[in-house]
Amino acid sequence: MTNNGSTPAFDPPKRKKKNMFAVLCGVLASMNSMLLGYDIGVMSGASIYIKKDLNISDTQVEILAGILNVYSLIGSAAAGRTSDWIGRRYTIVLAVIIFFAGALLMGFATNYAFLMFGRFITGIGVGYAMMIAPVYTTEVAPVSYRGFLSSLPEVFINIGILIGYCANLGFSNFRLDLGWRLMLGIAAVPAVFLGIGVLAMPESPRWLVMQGRLGEAKKVLYKTSDSDEEAEFRLADIKEAAGIPLDCTDDVVEPVKLKKGDPVWKDLLVHPTPAVRHILISAIGLHFFQQVTGVDAVVLYSPRIFEKAGIDDDNKKLLATMAVGFVKTIFILVATFMVDKFGRRPLLLTSVGGMIVSLFFLGLGLTVIDQSTHTIHWAVVLCLVTILSNVGFFSIGLGPITWVYSSEIFPLKLRAQGCSFGVAVNRVMSGTISMTFISLYKAITIGGAFFLFSGISVISWVFFYTLLPETKGTSLEDMELLFGTFFKWKSNAKELKKKKMMMMMDAEIEMGSNSQP
Asked: Which of 298, 34, 17 is nearest to 161 (CA)?
């Protein structure tokens, strides 16, 4: 068919529906994050009964709640090298096995020391899962909905938190020494099914290319792409990033070898390029501000916050806490479907802006209640509304997009270690907030604590506005082109767009020349 009888008409391929196999892989990998969410949610209520049963102090409660994040550093630090060694898929299986063992130990704990040992094992499994789930999902996902799939780990964290809150309420009427053990130990059951499900997933195509297994990588890409053309384009990008000649058609080649002296950490921390330095600062900032803005204080200590707001009955506190989990889950689902439509940056800035306002008015409401000798109903309502709005705003942006950004912006050879470094920062700050919140609000009042979180949120908004570019629609292999000049990332994005247009024009010209007799 011709256009005006001379030039062959270009009939663009129709857009295919979402590749459900890729979606299923992302869902299965991300469900590991549900185990972390469950532990966070269930500990908020279980700690009430653990304190009564084991007769422990507030300081011991703080350590019990937050120490998991410190222990998870071991898992996240080891996960980068482990995933490069045995692959992304088997690293996920390893994370599930470790978490399973930790849940059983906590369920059978006879004293505080035994319980802390169970937290240690569980924390290592959490560290592995938090690092590897977003990396695997990002590497499997097609570009068109990579944001959707990359935000799934945060979705399942929130689902896990909600299930944990439900377990609190469900087991709260059991015998004191049995109820909290069931709350913690029951997490071993879904871990078994998750481990079995993960074995049905394919390995990451990018890891397969790094191992020289091009034939297997190509098969996975054909299964997880929206079209055959996209699969070929993704394979070419990965080969180029890995330093493999584009004209290589062998199914098996020599694995990509790194130079001696562990250059991954050297390239990441010691002598990074301007682009890698910008990426690393952005990733660290995302993980740092995600935690220091106080979300774990709200989630872990929501029963105490509701008590400060005037709710004294344990069951009512747990019901109010369930409302927090429900709102977080609903809003994270909204964000998941919006991230590829509106982009990462608008959602992130809107999210943090809403958190600034919510945290300020939460601090105001708690201060009014704290300084009053009788119940002030409008202040109680204000506290409830702002707690729910804070977790809602967190869940539409800062919660999921931290994982989307950090899992997609690192170069291929640095991705596993870069993500593990980000997770380490995340867990350190989460542990710091979790283990100091009670002491913090006793020192500066609970209202003052949330005024502090609001001020930190202002700083985070400025950081994100200044340093983070929009990455929607950019292939993983082209991410470095967006970074490198801190305050001129928009011009980098324009250059990348020009590059893509030139590639498309060259492809159309080549197609036209090939169609000539």
From this structure: 34
Question: How many Cβ atoms sit within 10 Å of the Cβ of residue 455?
Answer: 15
Structure token digits, residue 204: 């990451």
**For 195-247, what is each residue's pLDDT tens digit?**
888 888 888 888 888 888 888 888 988 888 888 888 888 888 788 777 787 77
pLDDT digits (tens, 9 = 90+) for 441-459: 889 988 899 999 999 999 9
Of 385, 370, 378, 394, the C-alpha closest to 320 is: 385
DSSP 260: S
Q: Nearest to residue 72, comparing CAs of 42, 33, 111, 105?
A: 33
SS3 3: strand
AA identity, residue 375: T
For 168, counting Cβ atoms within 10 Å of its Cβ (0-12 exposed, 13-18 middle, 19+ buried), the class is buried
Give the Cα separation of 71 and 69 in Å (integer): 5
- Taking the C-alpha atoms of residue 39 and residue 473, their distance in angstroms, rounded to an integer, is 34
Element containing residue 2 per DSSP (H, E): strand 2-3
Distance CA 492, CA 474 (A): 12
Number of H helices, E strands in the chain: 23, 2
d(CA 349, CA 458): 11
pLDDT, tens digit (0-9, with 9 covering 90-100), for 159-169: 888 888 888 88
Distance (Å, rounded) from C-alpha 454 to C-alpha 365?
14
- Interatomic CA distance for residues 359 and 391, integer angstroms: 10
Domains of the chain with bracketed CATH: 20-201+262-479 (1.20.1250.20)
Token pair in block for residue 251: 């199914």
Determine the Cα–Cα distance for residues 462 and 517; give it in Å rounded to an integer.
Answer: 59
Task: Say if residues 471 and 286 touch (Cβ distance below 8 Å).
Answer: no
> Residue 2 pairs with which residues in a beta bridge?
8
List the one residue out of 238, 384, 262, 256 whose CA is nearest residue 323. 384
Residue 142 CA to residue 363 CA, distance in Å, equals 42
3 state SS of 54: helix
Spatial distance between the Cα atoms of 46 and 164, rounded to a whole number of angstroms? 9
Cβ count within 10 A of residue 505: 10
Per-residue pLDDT at 517: 46
Q: Which amino acid belongs to residue 79?
A: A
pLDDT given at position 105: 93
pLDDT tens, 340-356?
A: 788 888 899 999 999 99
The pLDDT tens digits for 118-142 are 999 998 988 888 778 878 887 887 8
